[in-house]
Structures are given as C-alpha cells and as structure tokens.
Amino acid sequence: MTRILCVANQKGGVGKTTTAVNLAAAVAAAERPVLLVDLDPQCNASSGLGLRPEPGQPTLYEVLTGQAALVDAVRSTELQALSVVPASRDLAAADVELVSADRREFRLRQALDGAVADYEYVIIDCPPSLSFLTVNALVASDAVIIPLQCEYYALEGLSQLLHTIRTVRRGFNPRLRVEGIVLTMFDTRNNLSHQVAEEVRRHFKDKVFRSVIPRNVRLSEAPSHGKPAILYDIRSTGAQSYLSMARELLA
Length: 251
Hints:
alpha/beta, globular
C-alpha cells in the first residue's frame, strides 16, 4: 500500500521544504520508491532537487486544473528511487481558478488515485498557509508531518493547524492523522531550543520524532546546488539527522 504523507505548517521558515526534500531523499536512499509532490507555488522543493521549468513540460498546476495526467508530470532525479512532480508559479492562481469547481478540495486526491501504485511513499510539500492547496494535500493524505521550529513563536500557530486537521478529518478525510512533529533548527547552544523541545515533548509525547534536525550550514547550502543533503554531504549532521528520521518513519 502506498502511504501518502504531507509536510505542513502554515508558518513560514520552519524547515518544511527542507524536511520534505530531505526526508524523501533519505527514504529513497533506503531503496523505497518515493514520489515527492511540490504543492508550493514558490517551487523550492523542485529547485532544491535541481529541477527547473521546461517549456511544454506539465507541472502540478496542469494536473490540478485537468490539463494533464499526474504520470505526465513526473520527473526523475539523481536518486533512482526518488521522482518528483514539480510545481510552477501558476499554482498561486489555482485557488482563484478553481473556486467554483466541483469538489475542488479533492483535486489532488483524484490526481493521485490510481497513479501512485508504483511508489511506497508519496510526500507532499505544502505551501506556508492554510489555503486551498494545503486543504487539497490534507484531503489526499493518510497522515501529516509537522515541522516545528525550536523558537519562541513555534507553538502559536500549531493549534490552528491542528484545528484545520480536525476539520478536514470531520468533513473530507476521516483517515487523516498526525504522523508526528519533527523539531527543526535545533541549536544545542541555545537554552530556548531545549526549552521548546521539552515543552513540545511534554504536550505531544510519542507524537514527536526522536530525531531532531539541527541548524546546519551544509543543510542550508545543499538547495543552492540542486541536491538533497545526503548527496551534497552525507557526513553532515543535517544529512545524518534526516537519515535517522527516515529510519523512524520506516520502522
């Protein structure tokens, strides 16, 4: 059975795309076929894997608007087990274009149905908002991974996201659950990082991944080279942290 996971947090700059890209790459490195779906109009997951828009090449925008099938938009990467459905900036207009469309919340689920049987995991990178696109991801997914930055304001937006997840579960997708919260941008020298981590673990207990993603220069540099961290510098603490997280997920 294919497991569909979305990486979501309406707060920007929490390591959401970094988590989606590097977790997908780490799972693929374990020879588990993975499809990464870039649902963010900023296209950072696509560019972070070295994919640039090509004339005439369908993207997720064409898939959601019914102009192309999902299989026609899939692109390969340097990792044999990792494929990507890239985004385009046109996705920003999908919210307006599909406002009157029938069952618009189910567009992504319908696109994935029957088209992802060859993949063990589908990982969806959501935009930093609780928009039409994020709701589509939640409706299409089995579970949500929530990256949470180890900083003061981190917990403020979490309750709103959890409320949205409950609403989607009641109205559209009863199977949806929280796979786990991953602590990101952890600074071992910063007492606040330790305090936030302790508070999150106290509230959410076993829903928090044991693997913690540190602040890491190599992890920040990798996207500019169009590579996930495990291909850019597998020995870096960032790459090793995502490999550890992937082992937790697969277990």
